[in-house]
Amino acid sequence: MAAAYELRCRECGKRFDNAPLSICDECFSPLEVICDLEAARGTFTREAIAAGPSSMWRYKSLLPVPEDYKPVTPAGWTPLLPAPHLAERIGAKNLYIKNDAVCMPTLSFKDRVVAVALANAQTFGFDTVGCSSTGNLANAVAAGAARHGLKTYILVPSDLEPAKILNTQVYGATLVRIDGNYDHVNRLCSQIADRYSWGFVNVNLRPYYAEGSKSVGFEIAEQLGWRLPDNVVCPMAGGSLITKIRKAFKELIALGLVEEKEVRFFGAQATGCSPISTAVKNGADHIEPQRPSTIARSLAIGNPADGVYAARAIRQSGGWAEDVSDVEIVSAIQELAETEGIFTETAGGVTTAVTARLYAHGRIHPDDLTVTCITGNGLKTTDALAGVYDQEAAIRPRLTDFEAYISQKNDEPELVVEGANVR
Amino acid sequence: MAAAYELRCRECGKRFDNAPLSICDECFSPLEVICDLEAARGTFTREAIAAGPSSMWRYKSLLPVPEDYKPVTPAGWTPLLPAPHLAERIGAKNLYIKNDAVCMPTLSFKDRVVAVALANAQTFGFDTVGCSSTGNLANAVAAGAARHGLKTYILVPSDLEPAKILNTQVYGATLVRIDGNYDHVNRLCSQIADRYSWGFVNVNLRPYYAEGSKSVGFEIAEQLGWRLPDNVVCPMAGGSLITKIRKAFKELIALGLVEEKEVRFFGAQATGCSPISTAVKNGADHIEPQRPSTIARSLAIGNPADGVYAARAIRQSGGWAEDVSDVEIVSAIQELAETEGIFTETAGGVTTAVTARLYAHGRIHPDDLTVTCITGNGLKTTDALAGVYDQEAAIRPRLTDFEAYISQKNDEPELVVEGANVR
């Protein structure tokens, strides 16, 4: 390998120089970036990483960006939090949440992949970038392109959440609404990328883009004190994230940074769009496309690009996949917020609800160290909670009115004791 | 000082043991926490701080929490970002943004102050906490109380933004809407705190709460490589933040962690609620309360608790204060997003617009190292941008339709060259 990374066909293994390419010209299978682990051995050490920035760029030498790349996207190094209150509710004993809903410019894990894709868009000389998106990617590309000074076309299904639409337009991106679902949008983007010399982060830049997700895996391992968890629960849309966290763990093992261990991977989908979890449950080695119908719109990909690889990773690891209803998604959003103070979008509701079910069904042992991946912020999908909370009538700003209010709630608060240390 | 911190009256200097108290019983002036700098000298070193967590808790030994306090709120250590594109637009040459819109559980700087307040609520044995809030504080208290397992009453003006209401209710807090503005709400909370044994973070816990803002100042200095900027531009609501960043800088100087320097502080308000900037401009040493009318609702405090101290800090430092219209606020939100990929709430629009004006008016020299504080996320005030962007009609998912769309935009993209390295 001349550079520190190159492209290889996932199926036939054909090697390609770095280029905006995503499909093998021999066998039409997807291409993947392979990083040169031997070359990284000197720089990818615990000490060098600890001395790096508080962002995903601490792992730069195992991400496919030029050696002299100066990062412009402050993404990653998101909190890995113990979740004792949620754990107690769902019968877990050693549960962590990897919270990508914060410490991200646009509040989802997509900032990671876009950061790597845009670095390569610059290298390849594109002045216009774009994507097909279910929302979070749109936000990340629009904001990233603003920082990089690139022109942007973003194509989305026309039914996207209002917050995700605004959170794309505000950065000055051109947002094109498509009358169709994500799979229609994605097909159109492939056609556009064939015709125009644009960098579509999840089409012709996809191999680079996808590698950005490895940073989730690197962070989990480092934040656990350079060890791997027993289980990872991950939402699945296109299916890429779960495969890249697994790849990150394998790279850490190969470099001797963590002890060898087979981590079990568990995939989470909404029942209204569950092509990958269905394949896992049926033991199928192919994905049957579905027509999505779920409030978890960021996961609503009926024909997932990496579905086969996600199902394979889950099976090989000894994991499982589950899917949950829209009602369960809303409940799980509330449960995570009430127990751990984390407000997640619908996709995080999916992951939380699936995590609970995996414990309930005995798929995960209570004592296992399990990491659940929360990938986006609740302020992105506020419409999913519309009507859930009553808007009570306002009261007048008087103590008597407040006392009437709380007595109606049957609350009898402790009174201030005169002379005690309370104002 | 027996403990590492205690309360002192800001005016008469009377000392108090730690307690949920905010007003001096001698002279009725506000109390402030004073940390024992000498006691912290051994632990508050550059090396010890660098070895600490990637959060505000790296500065724990100069925050008023018990020595054995185990932090539960993963707040702070937010990015300090160079803002070259915005700088170019407004005639600055060395502009940084301290971005508290990310890396915060509820996406505003209020998570910092609430983290410290709730640590003390626990120490004082409160099982119920609350606040009066213009929105961001409500979010932070609700989420923090969920993590701490505390009961919560949150009182807000009835016209709060929908996203801020939902982002309070989702954590299971009781949200009480008050028919009045923030100043009415705050007065009611003082009455409630007098009657019930509850911890109101910005009433009887206010001295502890306010100290949390020092972490912004500590972070700015450390992220600049342990030096102080020339100027800091800060939004002002109650006026506390600006005074506490200044206090943090003074503590760093006293401990020898940074070179001595008089940093100029600049305050930012909305013209529709500008009691502090008006006082600064008029050279007045008192604050004339106003009736707020602005889209920057998180800054809509007409009778700011720390207004006098904020105006004094600005004057003493050689700074200035400005206020901007609602139209300028919206433009500045867009400008910051388009140039730096940062989507801020209305308060951030205020700070950005004021920063631009300070450069335009020559109040800040172009070469100065200036830090502008962005304190909350744009997804919290999406209603402020309602109607700003057209919702274009959706197009069909066909290449011909897309080409018609871009030709209507007068865009003529470069075509893919056959045989070139582009898919």
Largest sheet: number of strands, sense, barrel closure of chain A: 6 strands, mixed
Please tally the β strands of chain A and state the result. 13
What is the N-to-C order of secondary-structure elements of chain A (H for helix, E for strand)?
EEEHHEHEHEHEHEHEHHEHEHHEHHEH
The assigned CATH architecture of the largest domain in chain A is 3-Layer(aba) Sandwich
Number of helices of chain A: 15
Number of separate domains of chain A: 2
Radius of gyration of chain A: 23 Å
Low-confidence spans of chain A: pLDDT under 50, at least 5 residues?
Answer: none
Broad shape of chain A: globular
Helical residues, percent of chain A: 25-40%
State the end-to-end CA separation of chain A: 70 Å
Q: State the strand order across the main sheet of chain A.
A: 4-5-13-10-11-12
Protein chain pair with the most extensive contact, residues per chain = A-B, 97 and 97 residues
User: CATH fold name of the largest domain in chain A, please?
Assistant: Rossmann fold
What class, by secondary structure content of chain A? alpha/beta
| Mean of all residue-level pLDDT scores of chain A | 95
Beta-strand level of the residues of chain A, as a percent range? 5-15%
Written overview of the protein:
- The structure is a homodimer of 423-residue chains.
- Chain A is of the alpha/beta class and 423 residues long.
- Chain A folds into two domains: 200 residues, Rossmann fold (3-Layer(aba) Sandwich), CATH 3.40.50; 101 residues, 3-Layer(aba) Sandwich (Rossmann fold), CATH 3.40.50.
- Helix content of chain A is 37%, strand content 14%.
- Chain A is built from 15 helices and 13 strands.
- In chain A, the strands form three sheets. A six-stranded mixed β-sheet of chain A has the order 4-5-13-10-11-12, sandwiched between helices.
- In chain A, strand 7, helix 6 and strand 8 form a beta-alpha-beta unit.
- In chain A, helix 5 packs parallel to helix 6.
- Chains A and B meet through helix 5, helix 6, strand 8, helix 7 and helix 13 of A and helix 5, helix 6, strand 8, helix 7 and helix 13 of B.
- Chains A, B: Its cofactor is pyridoxal 5'-phosphate.
